[in-house]
Amino acid sequence: MEHITLLLGIVIVTALVFDFTNGFHDTANAMATTISTGALKPKTAVAMSAVLNLVGAFLSVEVAKTISGGLINEEGIRTEVIFAALVGAILWNLLTWLLGLPSSSSHALFGGLIGAAVMSAGWSSVNGSTVITKILIPAVAAPLVAGLAAMLATRLTYRLSNRVDVKATAKGYRAGQITSAGLVSLAHGTNDAQKTMGIITLALVTGGVIAPGSNPPLWVIVSAGFAIALGTYLGGWRIIRTMGKGLTDLAPPQGFAAQTSAATVILASSHLGFSLSTTQSCSGAVMGSGLGRKGGVVRWSTATRMFVAWGLTLPAAGLVGAGAEFLTKQGTWGIVLTGALLIAGSAVIWILSRRQPVTFDNVNDVDGATAEPAGVVTTAMASVAPPPAGPLAAADDLKTTIPGPDAEPARPATV
């Protein structure tokens, strides 16, 4: 077994930085609906999510093995390729965070890894069947399945509680939201923390530290779990705002239905080793719950921008990863330049984000988002959805006021 070299150490640190960005980028997946409905205070929500992300990191290594031994062929891949892939993933994560778009950190990592591997060793270095079966198909299926499940769950929830007073169920929905948010956080740690474990394990294999096909060492699991938990605790407030208020206005029953549906899809995929995007699953569930409530509005302008970001993530991160790999192939100066560009790009994005900061104090403030009218799809779906749960209208509200006859015009006075 060889010792960890300086370059390999830099790659490991960069991977943990990506894991950190993954944490604050994807905090919205678990806690956006809980924060937007007021079930938990923002700081409490992200603290709870961080702890459960850490716990989830220890529950499975199936996704990590998909990345470290299935996505690309380990033979002939240099350690510099992993570094270039992480550069592409980190910069795309930061850019979409700046724009408040809930794009996929997973696909950013996959895109960067594929682009760097192709630049280094050609298309034969990528296992196309793994890309299709365990990345592309889940990317399409996950938001659709989660959205449909959330829409049906929302309708069922409102139908069951249609004649129940809102105040009588408020505590129950609040407890349900907190529980389901915890489940999503646990699922996120189980799925997303493993991606960094997989990338570090792949770097260790390329550096000759461990044998191909090995499971992630314990120190890799621990470090990846803590990195994603720290990022989660800091909170990606920009994306939380978009997920919680930008896509639709959620009531507690909708939040509960969305989170439960998303958690089920994510945990099932983690068990099967599918490295799906938790962002896409949770976003699809939020939109589905918006369509499931009569009168609910899905803001399709925001959703369209999000869909575009989803489509661009793989190729954009791949191009950046390929460019970074082109530089690292030039030798030491290329590696140093790539690292300098990563630091400079991250600094520029951070400075731009300070112009209009989003914090836990203003995360639920959305300028103009609520003014967007319902579109054709929302109107059609809402027309067949059950009415929201709540008390029956008061008797006074049901009275019809019948206007009296017009007053008889005054007669002129007689002299």
From TrEMBL:
The UniProt entry, under InterPro entries, shows: Phos_transporter
What family, per the record?
Answer: Belongs to the inorganic phosphate transporter (PiT) (TC 2.A.20) family.
Superkingdom of the source species = Bacteria
Kindly indicate where the leader peptide sits in this chain.
none
| Keywords on record | Membrane, Phosphate transport, Transmembrane, Transmembrane helix, Transport
Xref: Pfam families? PHO4 (PF01384)
Any one Gene Ontology MF annotation carried by this entry is: phosphate transmembrane transporter activity
Q: Where in the cell is it found?
A: Membrane
What cellular-component terms does GO give this entry?
Answer: membrane
Q: Where are the transmembrane segments?
A: 6-24, 45-61, 81-101, 108-126, 132-153, 196-213, 219-240, 307-327, 333-352
According to the record, the residues making up region (Disordered) are 390-415
The protein's name is Phosphate transporter
Q: Any keyword Transmembrane helix?
A: yes
The topology of this chain with respect to the membrane is: Multi-pass membrane protein
Predominant subcellular localization, coarse grouping: membrane
Species in which this protein is naturally found: Streptomyces fructofermentans
Listed GO biological process terms: phosphate ion transmembrane transport
